[in-house]
């Protein structure tokens, strides 16, 4: 189904001329999740996004679908239980995107360490029970110091005790968003990027009845009328709320910035995702993740008050992460010149909430007291001896007390929880949360939306099982992923692609691979491989790819994980997009400048120049 610059014009007309049941503001993962469920429910749905889909927070995560790893630090069983169950749901509805990839957790004997070898095993056993992976190929296990060093010979050996291994999932965050968006469009939602909300429309009773909007590509201003409006703008939730003069304007979010840096895998070889204490006794942990021949690491967690539309990596972020990575991998000697790519993103954290955090809490915060931990251990022992139930264990966990009072919250301690509220004028706001929870957050919002449509407008809608609502590209059996991906790979190979290229396309597009290979009929574009050509044509015609940055950063990961290919890709991609979208030479020059700026920013050119030695005359 076409979803392109051409169909966008029709969508704008539909937004202008139809009275919608629901208008969603924000095209990140939260808004995308609401859109697919609303459209599937038969709700007349519209969605507007002021940038590209996922351009903000939802393409700037750690790119993992977490199973609650962070919450093992405080044994927050409720959060872990919810998260691992939802992780399995996401894998079921988007089976071509999240992939299982066990996580290594090295254990160090040092001040401020999160776990020792004893406590990590208890935590992982509880985790496996909640995730229902006991006795499976993904069950946790511990490894000795020697085994950790065999896996990661470059990791710090001083104080290394051993490690734990447990299930986690790698993710492609931007692809997860666009696949939800495409399915919502297929189900009938009117979805448009680069449309900004500029004001709120009220009816005679003072209730929200739509939005004033502006098409940022054409400059056209128009109104969108809707019975209900939901704010899913992520970190912008408070800023959008400022458009609604009738809403409480007190801030509800405390955005923090997270940064990730990418180096070549030869400079920092790791065999599997690794999650460990920073070694700085600051109560924080760091991820080190292999991907597509590269290794990326992060994340920072600092309060943010700058430009929400354009957060970027600063020197302090680089200094911190390099200090951590060079401590943990003392022979690596990573410098800023090794950094091939980077990204910075904002987390829409709910303020005034001390629940479990993204990174496990600040220094000396939230440590479990000896007394409550001993009670937990006794209960676990009783459970193993069949003298206690699983409920007894969960009850003991829920009663764990921290050894330090949390007088003030550090950025790392702010909750990843979500919030669903309706203002007196009817405006709905769904904020906070994390990628793993997006489907569940949307389902909660849909329950409210369906009730309001029924009670206030006498509109009856279908109740759906969103746990079974598969996204675009994910329409296949999630219990048979490996064999199905081999089938999709064969489809691409039979169309003339080399095996490796065919596999890459299948992994990217899932059940849409058959549609992608239909673009083979026109042959390869000048300067592009057949794989790159058909991927680009499909993305322009069916994924609302409007410029080269959309394609090379969010529809693919070329800017992040294939920086060495960009010099040869840039001009051919622009030339083929110009042919598809009818650009003249002036427009091509503008797009090249935009793309070069995005690449320079990712490669930290602005910091590397500042770091360069002065040239003597």
Question: What does this entry look like structurally?
Answer:
Residues 466-588 form the Alpha-glycerophosphate oxidase C-terminal domain. GO terms for molecular function: glycerol-3-phosphate dehydrogenase (quinone) activity; glycerol-3-phosphate oxidase activity. By secondary structure, this protein is α+β, with helices and mostly antiparallel strands. It folds into 3 domains: 5-58 and 174-248 and 423-468, 3-Layer(bba) Sandwich (FAD/NAD(P)-binding domain); 100-171 and 254-367 and 402-412, D-Amino Acid Oxidase, subunit A, domain 2 (D-Amino Acid Oxidase, Chain A, domain 2); 480-607, Alpha-glycerophosphate oxidase, cap domain (Helicase, Ruva Protein, domain 3). Helix content is 38%, strand content 18%. The chain has 20 helices and 20 strands. The chain has helices at 5-17, 29-40, 77-93, 117-131, 145-151, 173-186, 237-241, 315-328, 370-384, 390-398, 438-457, 481-494, 499-509, 513-516, 530-542, 548-555, 558-561, 566-581, 585-602, 605-611, and strands spanning 19-25, 45-49, 64-65, 99-100, 103-108, 141-144, 160-166, 169-170, 190-193, 195-202, 208-215, 221-231, 256-264, 274-277, 285-291, 294-298, 302-303, 341-347, 418-422, 428-432. Strands 1, 2, 9, 10, 11, 12, 19 and 20 form an 8-stranded mixed β-sheet that branches. Strands 13, 14, 15, 16, 17 and 18 form a 6-stranded antiparallel β-sheet that branches. β14 and β15 form a beta hairpin. α9 runs antiparallel to α10 (390-398). The longest helix has 20 residues, at 438-457.
């Amino acid at each position: 189904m076409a979803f392109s610059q051409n169909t966008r014009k029709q969508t704008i007309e539909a937004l202008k001329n139809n009275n919608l049941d629901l208008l969603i503001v924000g095209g990140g993962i939260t808004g995308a999740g609401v859109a697919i469920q609303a459209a599937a429910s038969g709700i007349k749905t519209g969605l507007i996004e002021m940038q590209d889909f996922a351009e903000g927070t939802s393409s700037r995560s750690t790119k993992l679908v977490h199973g609650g790893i962070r919450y093992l630090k405080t044994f927050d069983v409720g959060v872990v239980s919810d998260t691992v169950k939802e992780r399995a749901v996401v894998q079921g509805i988007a089976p071509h995107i999240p992939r299982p990839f066990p996580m290594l957790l090295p254990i160090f004997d040092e001040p401020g360490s999160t776990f020792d070898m004893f406590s990590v095993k208890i935590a992982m056993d509880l985790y496996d029970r909640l995730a229902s992976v006991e006795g499976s190929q993904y069950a946790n296990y511990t490894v000795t110091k020697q085994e950790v060093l065999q896996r990661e010979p470059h990791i710090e050996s001083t104080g290394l005790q051993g490690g734990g291994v447990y299930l986690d999932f790698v993710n492609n965050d931007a692809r997860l968003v666009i696949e939800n968006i495409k399915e919502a469009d297929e189900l009938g939602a009117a979805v448009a990027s680069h449309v900004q909300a500029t004001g709120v429309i009220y009816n005679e009773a003072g209730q929200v009845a739509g939005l004033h909007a502006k098409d940022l590509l054409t400059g056209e201003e128009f109104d969108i009328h809707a019975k209900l409006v939901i704010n899913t703008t992520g970190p912008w939730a408070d800023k959008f709320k400022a458009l609604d003069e009738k809403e409480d304007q007190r801030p509800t979010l405390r955005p923090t910035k997270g940064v990730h840096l990418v180096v070549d895998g030869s400079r920092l070889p790791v065999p599997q995702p690794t999650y460990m204490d920073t070694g700085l006794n600051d109560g924080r942990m760091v991820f080190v993740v292999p991907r597509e021949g590269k290794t990326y690491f992060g994340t920072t967690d600092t309060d943010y008050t700058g430009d929400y539309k354009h957060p970027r990596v600063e020197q302090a972020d680089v200094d911190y992460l390099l200090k951590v990575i060079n401590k943990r991998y003392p022979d690596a000697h990573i410098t800023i010149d090794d950094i091939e790519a980077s990204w910075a993103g904002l987390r829409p954290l709910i303020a005034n909430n001390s629940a479990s955090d993204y990174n496990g809490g600040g220094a000396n915060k939230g440590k479990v007291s000896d007394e409550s931990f001993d009670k937990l251990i006794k209960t676990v022992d009783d459970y193993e001896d069949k003298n206690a139930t699983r409920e007894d264990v969960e009850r003991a966990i829920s009663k764990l007390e921290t050894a330090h009072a949390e007088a003030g919250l550090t950025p790392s301690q702010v909750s990843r929880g979500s919030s669903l509220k309706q203002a007196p004028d009817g405006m709905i706001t769904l904020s906070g949360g994390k990628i793993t929870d997006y489907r569940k957050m949307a389902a909660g919002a849909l329950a409210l939306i369906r009730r309001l449509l029924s009670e206030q407008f006498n509109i009856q809608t279908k109740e759906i099982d969103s746990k079974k609502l598969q996204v675009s590209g994910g329409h296949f059996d999630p219990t048979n992923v490996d064999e199905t991906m081999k089938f999709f790979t064969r489809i691409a190979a039979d169309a003339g692609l080399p095996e490796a290229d065919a596999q890459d396309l299948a992994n990217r597009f899932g059940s849409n691979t058959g549609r992608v290979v239909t673009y083979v009929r026109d042959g390869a574009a000048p300067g592009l491989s057949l794989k790159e050509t058909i991927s680009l044509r499909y993305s322009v015609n069916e994924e609302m790819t409007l410029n080269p940055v959309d394609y090379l950063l969010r529809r693919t990961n070329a800017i992040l994980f294939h920086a060495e290919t960009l010099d040869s890709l840039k001009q051919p991609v622009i030339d083929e997009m110009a042919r598809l979208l009818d650009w003249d030479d002036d427009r091509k020059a503008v797009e090249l400048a935009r793309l070069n700026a995005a690449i320079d920013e990712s490669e930290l050119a602005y910091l590397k120049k500042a770091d360069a030695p002065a040239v003597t005359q």
